[in-house]
Every structure is written in structure tokens, then in C-alpha cells.
Amino acid sequence: MNLDTLYSELTLKTQAKLALVVLDGLGDVATNAQNRMTPLEAARTPNLDALVAAGCAQGRMIPVAPGITPGSGPGHLALFGYDPLEYQVGRGVIEALGLGVELQAGDVAARANFCTLDERGIVTDRRAGRIDTAVCERLCARLRERVTRVGDAEVIIQAGKGHRFVVVFRGKGLEGPLTDADPHREGLPIPAAKPVSAKSARQKKTAELVAEFYRQALPVLAGESPANGFLMRGIAHQPAIPQFIERYQLRAACLAVYPMYKGLAQLVGMTKLEGPQTIAEQFERYLAEYERFDFFFIHYKYPDMHGEDGNFEAKRRAIEEFDAALPILLRKKPDVLAITGDHSTPCAVRGHSWHPQPVLLHSPYTGTDKLERFTETGANLGSLGVFEAKYLLRLMQANARMFDKFGA
Amino acid sequence: MNLDTLYSELTLKTQAKLALVVLDGLGDVATNAQNRMTPLEAARTPNLDALVAAGCAQGRMIPVAPGITPGSGPGHLALFGYDPLEYQVGRGVIEALGLGVELQAGDVAARANFCTLDERGIVTDRRAGRIDTAVCERLCARLRERVTRVGDAEVIIQAGKGHRFVVVFRGKGLEGPLTDADPHREGLPIPAAKPVSAKSARQKKTAELVAEFYRQALPVLAGESPANGFLMRGIAHQPAIPQFIERYQLRAACLAVYPMYKGLAQLVGMTKLEGPQTIAEQFERYLAEYERFDFFFIHYKYPDMHGEDGNFEAKRRAIEEFDAALPILLRKKPDVLAITGDHSTPCAVRGHSWHPQPVLLHSPYTGTDKLERFTETGANLGSLGVFEAKYLLRLMQANARMFDKFGA
Lengths: 408, 408
Prior knowledge:
CATH class of the largest domain in chain A: Alpha Beta
Oligomer: homodimer
Distance between the termini of chain A: 17 Å
CATH topology of the largest domain in chain A: Alkaline Phosphatase, subunit A
Strand order of the largest sheet of chain A: 10-9-11-1-12-13-2-14
CATH architecture of the largest domain in chain A: 3-Layer(aba) Sandwich
């Protein structure tokens, strides 16, 4: 029996409130160079400590599979309870979400970037001399003005940083993935984007739209230098993902600051609550919206950002800033509270990693693991053990008493 | 999505050096009769302790599945990163490898043993009175001399201990498994070996070759007593196993003393480095070959051997001997070092067991679990948790930074 089906069949409607607080990139490793401490271990966290004393279960979560380092997409899909191998979101879609494009089911999105072509159409610089963002925005504005439709599909163009932008095709019967319209090195012409599956009529139609887009858009850039062409990669459609409300019987809200996380939440049908910029403001908004939703996804970016820089002290301070704001959330304590990361971003790695992230779960039913703090080393000893991140939401549901008994 | 496919797609070529040191049968249980200590816990291991202080991740590995006791074949295949349930190696093949036969892909191998037949061909003693090894060797030499080919296949015969030997058929279009040419009790004639799958033309051909082998070989033994017949079991072909270099992008070398481990390494395409007899010599050879290979499998037999005898003190001393040699390996520290067993061989069991074996992983990215030693009890608290042994190689690859990020 499919496990998702079982969970679904056992799901009960309750009045419980659940909150998932994601400290992006929280997990770390305790190296000797760091005094055998992680930022979480080094941080002063009196409010987390009090929560642990009140009774929490701890453990560590494998984001995707042993040794696999996830991007933000798979990392968050797992936290939202979806198998990140079953529900894969193409790079174009992630990029569009990251730039704040409001994708709809069936949209096909591509990562694009300006390039330089010679008079024969050969790519001479795949990044068009890394033009400034301002130039990219001007060129995107012109493309947006001149190319609004291809065939029966709407075209959405959104500038990114430097030479990067995204193109979204919105219409009926579209589907990815397509091969890249990118030779992946200089000295070659731009290849046509082709269907990955020869049998898919939808991919074929989408490939024709991409070709038509090139026919319309390249002349618009003809007089430009150095950005007189563009490449398209990761051409994919927004996958059909079961929506949060049907899957979990939970009205879900997203409190995130950065577009990508809002976009990922939107993919699974969460309502985006815009406005708050600091973690304290996010928690205040949670209080204000408490009655309107059953599930709150609260995203805090900074531990990841500082981990990427290898900045131990800044990561530690970001965790302390979160801890200082935590009492706001606890003014209306959710019935089930999970605090974790979407993956580890160890300072020693200076990037996302495969190390299982620590997780803390608090409800009237977690009991205590008799640990004094929430840390990576403590989490190794916790009652949750090491488990796949996609099960966290199921454990939250269980602690919310949302599951009927299985069998008599 | 198949996980092996994912790992393969994410694999990057790097310059990293990886070493897997297998202390065969390392795992044990701490019984009260043993003063609540395992041999690993009782051993004096200053060099392992220093390695742990330098920063290691620990955990325990399930060799195949909970409660399953593996033989050396599945135990090692899992350590080599292959699912031991997906890649099964027949007993005939394992036996041939153990006797040092250089198997080739497609060879069919059978465990054989001499037996006694009466004048009507009825098996009266399935082990021919457990003849001496010297008798077995003489009879095998005679068979080897008189029966060199059956049909279009070459026959290879290798004596084992006591009444045991192996027969290998090398030719085109052969395949196992076949049913046993063994009545499994006295009082019956030797049954013909038959195809397990009625549809397999290759199994049918192989069964005909086995029958032909009996027709040629039985007359050679006709005058012997008590060993005037033989039985054949576990008739299987060497399976097609993805080779190490393609699967992991690693040039792999095997430093093992006993034939079976060399044979298992050869199955997955490792290069056998012959010569060294002691663990110190094996480590010296590792130093000498450091540049030529990316992955070193170093096998140390004695903890298992003494565990089989229930000899706690000897097992402890074997671990101490390994520890004393460890500094040689560390003269050129690999980027990723794993030290573990292929399974547990607890003194209290006097044989292989199902108990998860402890594992230690050391790299610049493991950090420390803040444990003081590498022990079974300590490993229970480690950051790697309890996981399936087939993932160890994937964790080694991750620590070698051999995996690209999954998803954006």
C-alpha cells in the first residue's frame, strides 16, 4: 500500500495549529577549528533552552538520501511532506519562483541569460560580458514590450541579476522538459530546444513555441552589444503537486521574505502573507493570522546565507536573533511546533551539504529527551533518531492528533 | 527515480583519495560475561583515539536488513555500495572466489564435494567419510588431468578443504542457476542438475554440460573408495555487476590477503595488489600505490576469525595490532577514511551475526561527534545514526565532494 494513501485515509480534521519554523541551512559540523562547536552550539539561546526544558523530541533528518546535498527546492519539498525524488521541480521553475514570478500550474519556465553572437550566429560569449543588472532590466523591458505572445501562449519575462533572466510560457497543453537551447560552450550556434520525450505532443508544441520565441526575440536584440542573443536552459513546466489543503486538511500560510521560498510554498498551495521583513515581524504576523490558518511555514534565511560565507560568528548571531524573537511566537503557542533547517550549510563547507539537519519537535505529546539544549550533538541522541525529512510533516500531524489508529 | 541513477547523475570527477578499511567481523556485543565490554571497547587503541579526537563521525550499519546475518559476499557487496539483495552472488561463485579461482564474467561455478556411491549409484555417504584434504587434492588433480573440456566449454577444478572442491565451466552462452545435483540425503541417486527457469536456453545448455561432466568424471573415480562420486550445489554464474570505475568514477585497488576478499573485489573491477601479508605491509603498500588509485579497499581478516572462535582476548589483540599499524596509513592521510566491519562476529555468537557494525568516517567535513573513542556503544550516539551499509560508499563520496547539488 502506498504510504501517502495510508496517511490520507487516516487523516482526521482537527482544530490543531501547527507551525514549521525553517532556519535555512541550520545544520553544521563541529570542527576542531571551530572549537568543536557548531554555530547552534555556540549560540546563546535562552528561549530555545526553555522550550527544550518544557519538553521536546529531537532528531536529525536526511534531506533527500544519504550523501545527497539538496538545493532549496528539494529541501523544502521534503519539509512540506513531499518525496523530493517523486516531486521534482525543474530549474527553470525554481529560477522563476526565485525571481518572484507568480507561476500557475502548467506554466513552462526557462532560465535564460544574455549572450553575444557573431554575424553568423555563433556564440562568442555565453554571458555577454556579464552585463550589469541595469542593462539586463532594460533589455528585458524591451523584450517584454515587443514579444507578448508566441502562438497561443502568453510570454512572461522577468529580469534577474547580471546577465540572467527567466522566460515563462503560459498556455494550454504545454509541458517540459526540453533540451537546452544552449551549446554549453562558445564557438557553436544556439541549438534548438527539443522534446526530451519524442512521444510527447505537449513537449513538441512547447519546443515550437520556444523556436517561435527565438524568431521574434532575436531581432529585438539585433542592434545590441554585447548582449545581442540569449540562451535558455532548464526548460520545465510547473509540475502537478497535490495541494496542501487536500493532502493534509490544513489551511497553510507562508511567512517568508525571499521570493524562492514564497514560490515553493505557492507550489503546494500555501497562502503567501506578505509584508514582514524580520523574524520578529514574521512571528507578530503569525499571531495576527493565528485563527485564519492551521499551518504556518515561517522561513528565516540568514543562517544559510552566513554558512555559505563560512562566517561562523554571523551564523551564530543569526541564530541568536531568531532565539530573541521566539517568545513572540510562543505568545500563542501552536499545538505542534517544529524548528529545523531545510538542509545543513556548514561553515566548513561554505555551501549546502548532505549532513542531516537537527530537528526539534514540541507538542503536549513529545515528552522530553532529557537534553538541555537543541544542538546537533544533542539531536544525535534524541528520540526521533535519524529519519528522512519528508516524514517530519507526518510526525507533526501525529502530534496534532490528526491520524486515526491504523487497524484494530 | 532510481537512487543509483541519481547518484550517478550527480557524480563529479575529483582528485580525492578514499580508503575503506574493513576489520572483518569487527562488531561485537558487550555481554556481562565479558565485563560489559566488546573487544573493541577493551582494546588499547591510542591511534584510533587520536583519529577520533581529530574529528570523526560515527554510526552503525545494518549489513543487509534488520535481523539478517550476511555471509562475506553480501557483507562486502554492501560495503562496496551495491544493494546486496539486488546483486546476489551464487554460492558456487563465492566458493570459487574463496579458493582463488580467477573467475571471468559468464563463468558458471559449482560447489562440489566427493561422496560415496553404491553399485547402483545410490548415495551412501554424502561426504565420502570426510576424506583428508590431501586425498581431495589428489582426486582433483586426476579429474583435472582427465576432464579438461565438456562440449565447447573449458572445465576448471580446484580442490578445497576435506571433501570439498569447486568446478567452473567457462564457455559461451552459459548461465545459472541450476538445481542441485545433490539428493540432500543418503539413500537416493544423484539427481540431474536442471534449469531453474524452463525458458532459459542458456541454463538448458549449462545443464547439458553438467550432465556431460558427470558422464566423463564419474568413470575417473570408479575405482576409488570411499570417494567414488561427487555432488554439485549452488551452480551459478558470475553475475554482471556494474564495475567500480563506471559506477563511482574511482580507480579502485584491493589490498587483501585471503582469496575470497580478493575475489569479491575483482567482481566489482578492483585491481588486486598482491604481496602484503600483514596489516602493516598492507598500509605500506597503500602508501606506495597512493598516486595510482583513488579508492583503496584494505581487508583485515583476524577480528572475524577470533570472533568465530569466541576468543575475546585474541579478537581484542587483533584490533590492537591493527591500531598499532594505523599510523603507517595516516602518513598519507586519505581525503576520506572509513573504518568498519563487513558485519559483526560477536564472541558470544561464535559466528557472523545481524548486529549493526560500528563505522567511523573521517574527512575535513565530518566534524566531531564529541566522542572520545571508536566503540560500538559510542557509535550508537554518533551523527551517522543507524543506516544501511550500502550507503557508506555514498557518504564517502559526499565527503570527497564527489556529488553535485541535487536540484536548485
